[in-house]
Design a protein that fits this description.
416 residues; alpha+beta; 39% helix; eight-stranded mixed sheet; 20% strand; single chain
């Protein structure tokens, strides 16, 4: 949410920001509604003042009593008008995208993202590579057909050592983040509409949400929603910032509008699992905390031995709540290319304004916190391990850092 005062003072800049971000928002209409609301507010405040003044004269002045009575009805009408205009202003503001970092690359889609660096060595195979579906089915650790039978297409089962590999991956990732100061959380898998709105998923991504009928609840698309919502309507002590949270959760997304995007196997699905990083910090620290979250993502992939590149996400590939975003795309042999495994967004005060999350310092400093939302790992990392660590006989070697958690160093094809 953008501060209405900022729009009053910088209307042309906000218009340009909307234009660059492809947001069809009438900033002039918002300004007009805001002006009308302020005028009504001023009238109401003047009327209250007059009513209070005259109320003191009521006992000695019958005419004053009649005036106060008339003012009561007029004030009620003004207050209702003020409320109605406030709802309209807030609705219009809810569609405004966040202000964009001026260094964000221009572009229409992910093809225009700017590569920052490549890390790791891409393995050369002396045999024909298998994709994660062929590997998973051959090792009897992944069952997509039964997932579709039980639920629908886009759901799947991890089995046996595949399930153990995923458990090991997420347990290890959380342990690494805890070492870096993150507090582990287990959050609800459902959230209210206000929480989804506050984190920016509504109204922008309403079609991605599985909503429960007859309930003010929806399945979460990421634990970002519940972790950021954790501090709604709170004032945090500035001296205790930054605050770091991490959580493992299932995530649910309809994937509406994803036709034509990479969807092989379980790369793009309706339910997946994820470990998230959430950071609450002071505004002056958010750029560095954004980089810290990226360092964590890179550290994890490097320890897993997975080649990747980091991209600076262009404006056309960034969601409306973001100020600046970095993606990491790991190398998938079956795609013969890089595909997204983590995303990391600095949301500045976009979420904290919507959810009313403030900070206050002993020195008198105060304001809205900034939030950082960054993936640590998802099932895409697990399938990336399968593809990059596959062997000619169809087995998969387990990355060394995960072996203490799996209890085995290789997944072998079942005996025939």
């Amino acid at each position: 949410m953008i501060d209405i005062k900022y729009i009053r003072e910088n209307p042309e800049f906000v218009k340009k920001n909307c234009q660059i971000r492809g947001a069809d928002v009438d900033v002039d209409a918002i300004a007009a509604l805001d002006k009308e609301r302020r005028e009504v507010t001023q009238k109401a405040e003047f009327l209250r003042s007059e009513r209070n003044r005259l109320s003191k004269e009521c006992q000695s002045n019958p005419a004053a009593r009649e005036q106060v009575k008339a003012m009561k009805d007029e004030l009620a009408a003004l207050e209702e008008k003020e409320r109605e205009l406030g709802v309209k202003v807030d609705e219009a503001l809810s569609w405004l995208p966040n202000i964009l970092d001026p260094e964000v690359p221009m572009g229409k889609d992910d093809a225009d993202n700017k590569e920052i660096r490549k890390v790791g060595t891409i393995r050369e195979f002396s045999f024909k590579v298998r994709d994660h579906v062929e590997l998973g089915e051959g090792l009897d650790i992944l069952d997509i057909k039964r997932g579709a039978k039980v639920a629908q297409s886009g759901f799947y089962y991890w089995k046996g050592k595949g399930a153990l590999l995923c458990d090991a991956l997420y347990t290890w990732v959380k342990a690494e983040l805890i070492k870096r100061g993150f507090t582990p959380m287990i959050t609800p898998c459902l959230a209210k509409e206000r929480t989804l709105f506050g984190t920016g998923y509504l109204p922008f991504f309403a079609d991605q949400t599985y909503k429960l009928e007859r309930e003010d609840l929806a399945l979460i698309g990421t634990s970002e929603q519940t972790l950021v919502g954790f501090h709604a309507d709170e004032t945090l002590e500035a001296e205790k910032l930054p605050i770091f949270y991490t959580a493992y959760s299932p995530c649910f997304r309809t994937e509406a509008g994803s036709y034509g995007k990479a969807s092989r196997g379980i790369f793009r699905v309706h339910q997946f699992h994820k470990v998230e990083q959430i950071i609450f910090c002071k505004p002056e620290d958010s750029v560095n905390q954004h980089k810290f979250a990226l360092e964590n993502e890179e550290m994890l992939l490097q320890k897993l031995g997975l080649p990747y590149h980091v991209v600076d996400v262009c404006v056309g590939d960034m969601g409306a709540p973001g100020y600046r975003k970095y993606d990491i795309e790991a190398w998938y042999p079956s795609f013969n290319g890089y595909r997204e495994v983590t995303s990391n967004t600095n949301l500045t005060e976009f979420q904290s304004r919507r959810l009313n999350i403030r900070y206050k310092g002993k020195d008198g400093s105060k304001g809205y916190v900034h939030t950082i939302s960054a993936t640590a790992a998802t099932d895409r990392v697990a399938i990336c391990i399968l593809e990059n660590y596959q062997q000619e006989d169809g087995s998969v070697v387990i990355p060394e850092v995960l072996r203490p958690y799996t209890g085995f160093d290789r997944i072998e094809p079942p005996a025939k």
